[in-house]
Design goal:
about 325 residues, mainly alpha, three-stranded antiparallel beta sheet, 13 helices, 3 strands
């Protein structure tokens, strides 16, 4: 996991540089939310692969952290609580990405005001607060550590007692069916929010009659598709392992190798986000290409101007 950290940190810093200094004016309306999503994904990556490094034993919602925070003596409860809130914030950040496009393309500049922006902020703050309340409930209902150890020993006897007796051991839930039900409701609600903004924006861009030029409409469609790819591809690194963990929990299937793969996938979300962001957005892609080839837009423009001048001079001379 630390190997991932050593790769991801420079990449995330580079991605932040690209967003801050290479975002063109045509993307100004999305610069802030792109940077926020990039930051959230980067934080989740580094937290998973360096600070937390959680060894979990699904189908039992238990395990222990072995990351840097454990070295500092931080409680397993606090570490795990931070992880779930970071994961939640990242998910809401992706919803914000599509809400931004909805606000820009559907509402437009004419419908914006300080009051509307405050309501948007309130909407996301309230969404986070409601979802985080479920996380708080989970951690307020944590079973006793010794009872948790006994539960794991009975459910998964193949796990050595030396691991179960780890000082950082934590068990999130024993026979409290309200917790998975609430969690399922929250995940569904977040999915529906994101789907609403995506579907409504697609309808507005591709099907509704809009009084804009074809060139503008084509650019907006292209940018929106790039946004979808930027979110969809990295999100799979969260959705797929979460779906596996859900199936493992549902069928009481234990395979530590697959659990480890799921954790690695969680820790690579920001990695995929940064790579895909650079690839799908043409200005970022060009900026990176120019950096590696040693050319800039000004250099290219100067070369073209010189060629035109040479051709014009030759034409006049003849």
């Amino acid at each position: 996991m630390h190997t991932l950290t050593s790769i991801e940190v420079p990449l995330h810093i580079f991605g932040a540089y690209i967003i801050i200094f290479k975002t063109p004016k045509s993307m100004d309306s999305a610069r802030t939310i792109i940077f926020i999503v990039h930051t959230l994904c980067s934080v989740m990556d580094i937290y998973c692969t360096f600070f937390l490094v959680f060894v979990f034993w699904v189908p039992s919602p238990s395990g222990y952290p072995v990351g840097f925070l454990s070295t500092l003596g931080v409680s397993s409860t606090i570490q795990t609580f931070i992880f779930f809130n970071t994961l939640l914030a990242t998910g809401i950040g992706f919803i914000g990405l599509f809400e931004n496009r909805h606000d820009t393309l559907v509402i437009g500049q004419s419908g914006r005001s300080e009051s509307r922006n405050f309501k948007r902020f309130l909407f996301f703050a309230l969404t986070f607060f409601i979802c985080a309340s479920d996380i708080v409930y989970v951690f307020m209902s944590l079973p006793d550590v010794e009872i948790g150890r006994i539960s794991v020993q009975k459910q998964q006897p193949c796990i050595p007692m030396s691991l179960i007796n780890n000082p950082g051991f934590i068990h999130l839930n024993i026979d409290n069916y309200l917790i998975p039900m609430l969690t399922g409701i929250i995940i569904t609600a977040l999915f529906l929010q994101g789907s609403f903004f995506v579907i409504y924006t697609i309808h507005n861009l591709f099907f509704a009659v809009r009084i804009v030029s074809k060139t503008t409409q084509r650019m907006q469609r292209k940018f929106f598709v790039a946004m979808i790819l930027q979110a969809l591809i990295p999100v799979t690194s969260i959705v797929i392992p979460m779906y596996y963990l859900y199936l493992a929990w549902s069928f009481s299937y234990y395979n530590q190798k697959y659990n480890n793969f799921a954790e690695i996938a969680f820790g690579m979300n920001g990695f995929f986000t940064t790579i895909v962001m650079i690839i799908v957005h043409q200005p970022y892609r060009k900026a990176v290409k120019n950096m590696f080839t040693g050319t800039t837009s000004d250099d290219i423009g100067s070369k073209i101007f010189r060629k035109i001048s040479v051709v014009r001079t030759a034409f006049v001379s003849s």
